[in-house]
Amino acid sequence: MPPAELISTARIAVGDWEEDDYVIDPAGHASRLTGPAPSLAGLLGSSGLTAIARQYTTHDKAAVEAQRAFKRAAVRANWAVLLAAVFSALLLMTVPLSARLPADAGKGLYIAFGVGGASTGALAGMWLFQIREGELLKRWLTARARAEADRLRYFDAVTAPVAVAPALLSLLQLEYFRRYQFDVQRAFYRRRGADHQRAADRALARRAAAAFLATFAAGVGGVLGGAVDAAWVSLAGFGVIATALAGFAAAQEGINQDRRNAERYGQTLEALEQLDAQLDAVRELAAGGDGTAVGAFVAQVHERLMAEHRQWLEASEAIAKYVGELDAALAKLRAKPQAEKGSRGPTA
Fold it and tell me: At what angle do helices 293-314 and 258-276 cross, to 10 degrees?
């Protein structure tokens, strides 16, 4: 069979990328390929590949669950710290306003804001304790590292040279790798990179708006408090709230590592797209009987994926830093009522 026909036969047999191709299912793939590509189907049915696929599925599920647990606790803690800061600011704002309010109303607001701040602060402390003592970040990173190692190991095994293999089998191995690993990874980096970039841009816009509000509230409150009525100083409390909103947006972006991931995913996608330009040449080499071409291409792709994953693991230090900043912000909020106790509450 001419090389061009071999290449076409292999591509048609394996097919093109579909949305659910990230799932590693050698048994299902083998069943579908029994007719059009029996030699590849037989390879996929081996016990070794089935065992690796089973390990990947187990570790991938654990990684997804660990990620959800960490993100759920971190997001909740971030929201709770924000609300605690808002209640703290509202509590301070009642002081200059208490003289203008009925005594019972002033005390009611003071109690409501105080209880709200204490409650949200306690919730933030609980979720941060879960992250810290449960090592939720470490569990997520460890499980994901294991899953990704299994995935690479699976495709290394699928594309390993077979003794006295016909050119068609090498091409089938290449096309299988192209569809279920190469195309899957490119789709992931393209989609998730765009998602992270949008999230990073939204976080930046929120921080900019919060910076404007903080400056504006502090300036107007100071002017009106000095020129009109001291009660207007309470507007400065909105500046405190704005600062808390800026911290909330920064923590959210930092926990998700949106800007850093967008940049890193874009670089990895660009590297993979450059390798895609070599794919036709690899096909021709494999069709011509070069048994090393497929393995060399797979090794190049995996080298770039491993480099990106190492950088992702290194980013865990930045994620931990933002979680630590939530702890520090909460500690400051807890210390503030103690410093002001007995001197700021509304009087009867």
Answer: 170
* Domain that includes residue 206, residue range: 3-340
Asked, for residue 347, whether it belongs to a domain, the answer is no
Specify if 226 maps to a domain.
Answer: yes
CB atoms within 10 A of CB 12: 12
- Is residue 80 assigned to a domain? yes
Predicted confidence pLDDT, tens digits, the chain (348 residues): 788 999 999 999 999 999 889 989 999 999 999 999 999 999 998 899 999 999 999 999 999 999 999 999 999 999 999 999 889 888 877 766 666 667 677 678 888 888 999 999 999 999 999 999 999 999 999 999 999 999 999 999 999 988 767 889 999 999 999 999 999 999 999 999 999 999 999 999 988 988 888 777 666 655 655 555 555 556 667 778 888 888 899 999 989 999 999 999 999 999 999 999 999 999 999 998 887 899 999 999 999 999 998 888 887 778 888 888 898 888 888 776 554 554 445 544
CA nearest to 232, candidates 97, 75, 136, 141: 97
Residue 348 lies in a domain: no
Q: How many domains does the chain have?
A: 1
Count of C-beta atoms within a 10 Å radius of residue 73: 21
